[in-house]
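Below is one such record:
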Amino acid sequence: MPKTGDDSPKPEPIVITRADHKGVLVCGSDKAAQSRGLAPGMRLAEARSIYPALRDLPEQPDLYERHLARLIRAMDRYSPWVARDRFLQEAGQDGPMDGGDAGLWLEITGGSHLFGGESALLELVLRDGKSRGYACRAAIADTAGAAWGAARCHPAPAEQRILSLPRDHDIAAGFPISALRLPEQTRVTLFRLGLKHLGDITPMPRANITTRLGPEVLQRLDQFYGRLPEHLNFNLPDRPWLIRRSFGEPLGDAANLAIAVESMITELCDNLAQENLGLRRIILRCVRVDGHTHTITLGTGSPCQSAPHVLRLLSEKMPGVDTGFGIEQVIVYAPWVEHVAFRQSRLDQQQEETTDQIALAQLIDRISHHLGPRDMLFHPGHHASHLPERASVRQAVNARTYPARRTDMTLPKRPVRLIDPPEPAEILARDTNGTPSRLRWRKMAVDIIHAEGPERICPEWWQCLDQDEYALSPKTRDYFRIRDQAGRLLWAFRTGTTGQDIWSIHGLFGN
């Protein structure tokens, strides 16, 4: 009889624990633990009374910080301004107590159009976080407080959590009180008073709220609606390579903007050169008087200290900057810098900067700049493998190259064109010795006029450790160089046992 229930074993619940002077507390739990009622914040003894076979792991703050730092670097592709959520520290906690409240703020003002709009940007952020193994909630709003609440309480699907105030005031009014980042004691007091949603607080007299609950409720409410500013602590390096200039008289034309950008880029490159550093990525932001921001992002294949090279790359995108009523602020930021390899100076004090290599790197940057971020320049590289399809790999044009083979080794001839994956060939006829004399390949009949071989290529031994005779496995190939009736020289191989051999064409030699 068919089974009507799910008999698959359920995963064992796992919780993360934290020890302090009060005992051992649960600070994180997986879905299996949450489904059994094991919530963060309870004591470990209480959790074991609910599920005795519970598996607990001690908290690792250093590992948590490394993962968070790695996530911040990953989010830099969407905005250079990334800030950590400090609500947990302000509430007196050392880390997330529900396994998922570690948050980040991204300042995306004027940059969402680079990713196809706010909805497309939101979808990219969620997909990027999921691909890295994180369960993410994200939202876009006009203020940091509204974004924090919308990410947790917005009723729309994950990719459509965009809150614009005051247009979406009705949606925000339905958010629970927890969307205001209030301490737990304050939330309990509000619940006892029957105030469970934001819409229950906003129409009340402000003096009454301050008298009963203190000033923090109104402060969070005003930050949510943008009536009070909220200063975020953006995650920047110890010495941010950033230059910001504000102009009392806005720059109204492209010529004055180009002069300002040139001086800022020159200053940034000079500062990097003094520390023997070179930029790998640079971001230029031009803020207009009406608040619109135009962002230009460039990358280099190697650490660059040359201001003329960076300005040449920028000059191709600067015509797209619309000055409008004037540019009031220009920001140049290098979020990614690397050490520059030492370059030997000649005795006559003239710098011998390996001119050919530098010129080649700058040429590659210009070509990559024209191709766009979706295309990549590469050249064939060599990989230490006897398998033909693995012996050649794609390498970045500025990567270190390795010799094709050792000078004291001789290899058989290899085809000038490799067919990957190999194309099957059907045996049509055999001679008296059982050797194929006629094949069908690409719907064409191939008469074997002459054949040389075999050259046996075995699978890699470290992948066949459980086999005693891995050389006789079905993955072993016997290669032949075959001359057909048209004069072509084909590279064919045979796999399988004798009498049940399978033939394939793997390459073409030059005539």
Notes: Residues 62-225 form one domain. The CA atoms of residues 40 and 374 lie 43 Å apart. The longest helix spans residues 254-274. The longest strand covers residues 417-430.
